[in-house]
Specification:
three-stranded parallel β-sheet; metal ion binding; iron; 4 domains; repeat; Glutathione S-transferase Yfyf (Class Pi), Chain A, domain 2; 7 strands
Amino acid sequence: MTTTYDPFHPQYFVDADLREEMTRVYDLCHGCRLCFKFCPSFPSLFSFIDQHDDQDAARLTRGEQDQVVDECFQCKLCYVNCPYTPGQHEWALDFPRLMMRADQVRFRDEKRSVHTKLTDAALAKTDLVGKVSTLAAPLANLAIRTPGSGVRKVIEKTVGIANERVLPPYARQRFSTWFRKRGGSKLAREKQAQVALFPTCLVEYQNVGVGHDTVKVLEHNGIECSLPKGMQCCGAPALHQGDVETFRKLARNNIGVLASAVREAERNGHDLPIIVTQPTCGYVLKKDYVGYIGGADAELVASKTRDVSEYVWQIHKGEDSELDCDFPGIVPATTTYHAPCHLRAQNIGLKSRDILKLTGTQVTVVAECSAIDGTWGLRAENFEMSRGVAAKMANAIKKADTEALAGDCSLANGGIVLETGRQPVHPIQQFARAYGIPEEPTR
């Protein structure tokens, strides 16, 4: 048995070794049970072991072990709760990385059905799907806009995306196109700093308004924005399916593009933070690029990556920077802020909450999981389970009953729409309206 989360270790992809490590970890988790509330994996795991009088984790069948893997949606909250993680305890227990190791071994070793391959492709090839769908936005949006419609049921049967899931519409003009056509940064005050934007697929092709407002809020505060050429999907959908080779290909490309931009800025005497607008992608750049690629460039990219709200708060607290805290625009009296799991797992604090408080709104935090977590909750086979997990989130949002609703994750926000009927906005968008920055007309 090898306790390793290093994909370059010679035993990493050996199934027999993986199964022994799963038994070790399952036994430790069964004895602890701190994470029982986070996802369906743990109740299933505990019930599988409890059915045996001796409660021996080694008695689990291969199918039972795999069910635990399938029910893990990579919320990463084990990192927030687990006291036995590598570097903190001799047990070196990393449940999320073990689940990804299992997915990767199964992806390599097991034959996938045609339907599964189609679902994997539809969810992982975000750039291809995004480029085609933005070119044909009216038709694409007609197909996806009504959950439960006949067209959506056909989509579910063919590519496996749950027909009732709320999906963000495609923009006719991509974010990068908008950025290029406007002709560079338009600073509203003296330049304080410069940043590179990693807009993410969701902002590039769908929620382009998040990108518009990110640029405008930063420019309002004298931050010059750039968009390095050649960026692609961060690779999270492929990684979470177990397709580590596709993930590495995407990651190496992005690391090369971003590290080159950072080093070029350094040669010119400037620091260049990398600003990310979606929490899953920020987590991948900070954590997974280092773990699955490694090297000086990956470490550099990770060290420079900031969530957009994290960076705005950094401006506010910086000795050499200043944030405009005059908010003459629209400021709701009360706001519910949904804190996504992949942002909480970055251990940076609730910076979106903090910047919203600066505007004068009273913030209620809801930290319950939406159970989307990348693309897991979009799959038809996980839909009902996902809704069961999301019920606590929905109840908390309804109980808060505030004037405004904000959340950083576009996919989680779709889950909120489904469960509550309310449409959240990204915190940076609410922040922009508080400045009096009008919403950019979208095509």
